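2 proteins. here.
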Amino acid sequence: MTTVAGVDAYRGGWVGVTLRDGAFAGIAVAGRLADLVRDIGDAAAIGVDIPLGLTAAGTRGTDAAARVLLGRRRSTVFEIAPRPCWEQPDHAAASALSRQLMGKGMSIQSWGLRAKLLDANTVYDDDVAPLWEVHPELSFQQMGLGFEDGTKKSWRGQRARLRVLAANGIELPEDLGAAAQVPADDVLDAAAASWSAARIAAGRAYSVPDPPQVDERGRRIAIWC
């Protein structure tokens, strides 16, 4: 029996959807990613919707490559600044350093990822769990979701995502227990991430780009779907 999980960040922390042999097996929430990974337990792969692996300077090729694949949904992928930028005390300092290290500033939306990004990359760098970077919009695209199906925050978009997940064997329950307070779009994203994690565990996923970049710590930089 193969266990995998998909994880998404939300305002209150992290939400994880677990699959066993491709079917929904549970959902959990935690304030820190390390705690959620511990609660998930032994998993063959954990797909995480957050940038994993940071450059010392220059761009992550995966962000630009993913934007091309997503087409009209390309705005859902931020270009991620080098590691030193995330260590700055505020957005102004981070953006100024980003201009030096990769030739462009950092958006305020990207800076908003800082706490979750640093949390996740601490777990990733420590290599305590099989984390893989995924992007739910790429996952849903691979599952058959079309641009005409709407955005993830719209009623139409959420219904379409539930339908596509179900068609791929992932039936989410109405009662989410402790995860009931998590926004619906974040639950759906975690479920999509779990689908990609199952593909990773089965050796069917591909990386964007192919082959992956490698950061200065020897960690891969790629989105898997």
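next one coming up
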Amino acid sequence: MEEAELGCCVCHERYDETRCPKNLGCGHAVCSLCVQQIINSGRKCPECRRPFYATTAAALPVNYPLLRLSRALASVSLQRGQPQALSPSSGATRSQNDAGECAAHLSRLTQRCITCRVWVCRECVLMDHTLPPEGQCRLLPVRQAINEMKKTHVETLASKVISLRELKTSAATQGGCLEANQKIRNTVAASLQAAARAELDAVKELDAKKKEVEGKVGEIDGWVQGLREKESAVMQATTVRELATAALAARELLNATETRAERERERQARFLGTQLRLGSLDLRGSLQLARTMYVAHQSEEGRRWARLSMHDSFLHLHALQASPPPASAPVFSFSSVRSLVPRDSPSAFLEVGWEGVSQGRVLLTMMGDTARARQFLQLCSGEGGPCYRGTCMFQAERVGGHGEIIRGGDYEHNDGTGGAAVVEGVATGGEHLHDAAPGLVVGAHSGQQHRLAVFGVILSPWSEHKTDTAFAAVTSGLGVLRAAARTQPVTQVTVLDCGIRVPL
């Protein structure tokens, strides 16, 4: 009789965590598995036929007193050794289909809330976990939840393995880059050692030539002394015979001296024609021997000098200026270094800063040997007179938007109204026609004759737009120019230094 009273009136199964007693509102209870069938078939109590209005089993309250009595009866039956009615959650099957006991409700944890990531019992579901459409919780039985958790963990581990493989590939790539760099450095080091040995051999040769010249100076002094002695003998002659003898000896010595002097002139002419010339190997060797070097340039404006420095295996030829170098610094000819610059894709640099502090170096590579490219290189080196050194960025447009651009290069007025061309043939279109992409360096339109030397650098994409004045591209330092475009006012941004890069 006890078990009949504590069971469902429809299926006659005892109430437990799987079959929770649901109050229908009339005082009668039906298990949670059968109540959905009743809802689907008319929503009337199977005992008194009174209607109820719940549309889902979850909407009906649990009869907790009845559920506790059922649990107590099951416990007493186990203690007395009486067999308990098997249900899907009892006996040996229960340990496989639940996650233990709920500490809050002392019920079996038969489901997992995927949304909240916790194991739940029936009471937990009714009190804290609401299913759609009223709530966001997603419930799965233990077995299905275990499978999904396994799948999630496997996917997480697989994702981490892929990430680690990518990390390994990146590290291997870096290792390859370092190895290639090491080979380049070894080659450069060998070249520098060869250059140093060549320089030492040249020093020895020069020392030998110096001793030879010193000997020639002493020899010429002997010639002069001999002529003076003959002159004295002529002056001391008192008779015709003595005078004739002294004059004959003087003529013979004079002829011999003239022959020797002619040979010395030929030797000196050969010496001037065999002076050392500056080449790439000599330059590497000189860089190994001296940290600071300069070049000298003679033009109509007078004599000017430019500093040489090394950056990333490139020789940087800085802009010419009037200040002479230190007396101890090696000085080469400007033309010998300038001739090492390639014609097909030469490159230049701009040292950009504001508030008197350098913010970084911008590297630019020319798009071929064009008039615009030659003009930019000439204004970076200052070899023609005007120079970008000391000019400011006079305009930044569309900052933060599409087609952002920063402009500079007005060496005349520093405000964008000047900057005339310094070479002939600056054209528009044709080889200068390119998509407006970040890093593209453009110039003024050929119709603006008074400002053809100004330049602009595109800083952000500008889709479906083209420019017909492009002549170079930024290969490094674009971030420096983006920061410069956001400086207020932008005219504070200055080209602190500039020049041409010479590959070694």
